[in-house]
Design goal:
It is a single chain. The protein is mainly beta. Helix content is 5%, strand content 67%. It is elongated, with a radius of gyration of 29 Å.
């Protein structure tokens, strides 16, 4: 009797030791631990022996999991089940109330994909001068992006104000008073090609622009998207509705739109960005709007940074007695989230 119980405990102990997810390599080697994720032909595997490792799916013969995993197939189907060992390049999906189903690696797009989350920043700056001339400037801007497996949402808003008072004459003048809010939704039809819909609302009191509303749609191409470099281009159509004051005037027209966005990392502490948007009136080629900026961010801490940038807003047909372009140089301190 004691011998029989000893054999049972040895069996239980053996099962406990080998419990967990298991990888069988084409070389015949095995690795136990936990399947964390699969994406882009690579598996992130947490092993008690080797720690967190990244494995090429091409080197794996098959694998099994102790618990249910979320499998997103290439056709969009999502399966949440345990998997068992299969033939080379396959796993067996162990459905609770159905016959096991074979799933080739080629049909697996991702496993345990990361949940989309919002990332972005808030930047603010201010300056005060007191003496013969009193001046006050303030700016604040915010942007946020949510990147999913097949889509991307971008939101942004900003406000800039500058005022000056001459104490000798008592004259008070405002040199900047503008704000905007915009949003864009991208849907990726392939890994790089996407369609977009966007909307922007802006107001500039100094330029006598009471309102500019510009919804649009088009297509874009994501040339590169990595942690150190992000670059995409866009082209489409935009409907522009503008209201000016002094004198009052309303403009409505359809325009083309071309744009690009660039983010890049210079080193561990400095990042850069550059954006360009060109909106020419289809009916009048001499009427065009241009918005561009370029800047650098220098990290102070993990979240805190300094930002310096130059902005250009160009309108080839501004309101009466207004300049065609506004050039702004802005410094601020920001926080990332």
């Amino acid at each position: 009797m004691n011998k029989r119980w000893c054999m049972v405990w040895v069996g239980v102990l053996s099962i406990t030791i080998v419990s967990g997810d298991e990888i069988l390599f084409k070389s015949g080697d095995r690795l136990t631990g936990t399947v964390k994720s699969v994406a882009g032909g690579k598996m992130v595997f947490d092993s008690a022996v080797a720690g967190s490792v990244t494995l090429k799916m091409d080197a794996i013969k098959t694998f099994s999991t102790e618990k249910a995993i979320e499998i997103v197939q290439t056709n969009g189907t999502v399966v949440v089940q345990k998997v068992g060992m299969g033939a080379e390049g396959q796993v067996t999906v162990l459905a609770d109330a159905a016959q096991p189903q074979t799933m080739p690696f080629a049909e697996i797009a991702t496993i345990n994909p990361g949940k989309p989350k919002w990332t972005g920043s808030i930047v603010a700056g201010a300056a005060l001068t007191r003496g013969n001339t009193e001046s006050s400037t303030a700016n604040i801007g915010a942007e946020a992006t949510r990147r999913g497996e097949s889509d991307r949402i971008y939101l942004a808003a900003g406000y800039l104000f500058a005022n000056q008072r001459d104490n000798n004459t008592g004259q008070n003048s405002t040199s900047a008073d503008n704000w905007f809010i915009k949003g864009k939704y991208d849907y990726f039809f392939t890994q790089r090609f996407f369609g977009y819909a966007n909307m922007k609302y802006e107001k500039d009191r100094i330029a006598n622009l009471d309102m500019r509303l510009s919804p649009g749609a088009g297509a874009g191409y994501q040339w590169i998207e990595t942690a150190s470099l992000n670059f995409f281009t866009e082209a489409g159509l935009t409907y522009v509705r503008e209201k000016y004051t002094n004198p009052e005037e309303t403009r409505n027209y359809v325009a083309a739109r071309g744009a690009y966005h660039l983010n890049f990392v210079l080193n561990d502490h400095v990042k850069g960005f550059h954006n360009l948007e060109v909106i020419p009136n289809i009916e009048d080629v001499q009427a065009v709007l241009v918005f561009t900026d370029v800047g650098l961010r220098a990290a102070m801490t993990e979240r805190l940074f300094l930002e310096g940038k130059a902005q250009l807003a160009y309108n080839s047909q501004p309101a009466d007695n207004r300049d065609k372009k506004d050039m702004r140089y802005i410094l601020g301190i920001g926080w990332t989230f």
